[in-house]
Amino acid sequence: MSIIELKVPVIGESVTEVTLSAWLKEDGAYVEQDEAICEFESDKATVEAPAEKAGKLIWVAAEDDDIPIGGVYAKIDTSVSGGAESSPEVKEKAPAQEEKTEVAAPKEDSYAAGHPSPAARKLMDENGLTAADIQATGKDGRIIKEDVLKAIANKQAAPKKEAAPKKEAPKTVAAPPLSGAANFSREKRQEKMSRMRRTIASRLVYAKNETAMLTTFNEVDLSNIMKLRKTYQEDFVKKYGIKLGFMSLFAKACAKVLMEMPDVNAQLTEDGKNLIYHDYADISIAISTPTGLVVPPVHNVESLSFSDVEWKIKELAGKARSGKLTLDEMSGGTFTITNGGVFGSMMSTPIINPPQSAILGMHTIQQRPMAIDGEVKIRPMMYLALSYDHRVIDGSTSVTFLVKVKELLEDPTRLLLDL
Question: Collapsing DSSP states into helix, strand and coil, what is residue 367?
Fold first, then answer.
């Protein structure tokens, strides 16, 4: 027997541990060389792990296990060659053979006991079943697809219990029944946080505890931007194949001011003794995904056109929501923009994205009465928030930055003419 160990590869410089989020191949299955066998979730991305050699796969770690970089997560028996008899999927398709074979008792120390295969888990979730509802017959007590199908059939065949006759309430009781009482619940459950959620939590706590963070506010009249988009949107789409959104206008305005005010675009070194200044604006865009918030940067925004920025944001958002962002696409960033307005937020204090020194928060647009030239007029207004690290950026600098961004957005012609 020739067995090789599979170890967690180096995924990124700052990644020291990963979570085995899903097995793509069953324990004991025959796998080909370079075939994807599992997925690892780090704080930056989800990556597939390939088989280094062909042979029989032997699980060492279970799903949801945290494994350090270099840790063993599986083994491959290279002495086993491919064939129908080596595939557990084929065995599942032969129920007659399973009936003749005695089910081996699961080992007490086996991690597989009561753990469903990916196919079995999907069926359990769809039918509201738990491990307690199913009799496991797989290797080492693992729940396989056939076990779930049998449990579903038994559940459907079980006779429904007749409701006990209702007892009439004593006539002396006059209290009416609670409205919607059938919907009351005292149930609770505990679930392990994903690797990304845990990393987001630690980074946010670090930002709050290790930076001298303050927030300054202003408001911007978006009348001219709304008029600009309405006037030229059709021509913009016809020429560039994408809509002119708010984000590219805000990103370009911030990039222009960042080039004029390098302190806002700077960051402290790890020892806190030096400042790193950037002659470019790599603006991280906060994107909400099913697993958490990610902030991939758009590089050199100061040099890109509006259409280039829109296309890049669309590309990054698509990859983020499908879990296909690479580590390179997640790296870097000198400034961040987050738009809580898409969720209806009117005002917030965004938290800095370390090691960056500032973050701009956009909010929902509201029609509000404003005093303009001695008259009250209704205008589309948005509150802006700039959170910044006071160790790097002075209060006057932060206020000036926000005022300059406001001026460019209220008069976008200056932005287009680079004035």
Answer: strand
Residues of the chain with CATH 4.10.320.10: 94-157
Matching CATH number, 195-416, of 3.40.50.2300, 3.50.50.60, 3.30.559.10, 2.10.109.10: 3.30.559.10
Active site residue 66: no
Tokens of 220: 């911007």
Over residues 367-408, the pLDDT tens digits come to 999 998 889 999 999 999 999 999 999 999 999 999 999 999
Q: What integer pLDDT is reported at residue 169 of this predicted model?
A: 55
Of 34, 125, 235, 394, the catalytic one is 394
Cα-based torsion angle of the residue sequence 91, 96, 101, 102 in order, rounded to the nearest 10 degrees: 110
Q: Express the helix, strand and coil content of the chain in percent, nearest 5 each.
A: 35, 25, 40
**Residue whose pair of structure tokens reads 């769809």 in the numeric block:** 126
> In the chain, where does the domain assigned CATH 3.30.559.10 lie?
195-416
Weakest-pLDDT range from 99-103, 113-117, 195-199: 99-103
Residue 25, CA atoms < 13 Å, CB-side half-sphere = 28
Cα 49 from Cα 65, distance rounded (Å): 15
The CATH code belonging to domain 94-157 is: 4.10.320.10
pTM beyond 0.70, yes or no: no
Nearest Cα to Cα of residue 228 among 416, 357, 72, 61? 416
CATH 3.40.50.720 for the 3-85 domain, yes or no: no
Provide the token pair at 412: 């976008």
User: How far is CA 21 from each of CA 42, 75, 125, 190, 369, rounded to the nearest angstrom?
Assistant: 9, 18, 17, 17, 51
Beta strands 366-372; 297-298: pairing state? unpaired
Q: Which of 66, 390, 411, 418 is catalytic?
A: 390
Residue where the block lists tokens 């097995």: 23
Q: Is 299 a catalytic residue?
A: no
Q: pLDDT tens for residues 62-85?
A: 887 888 888 888 988 888 776 544
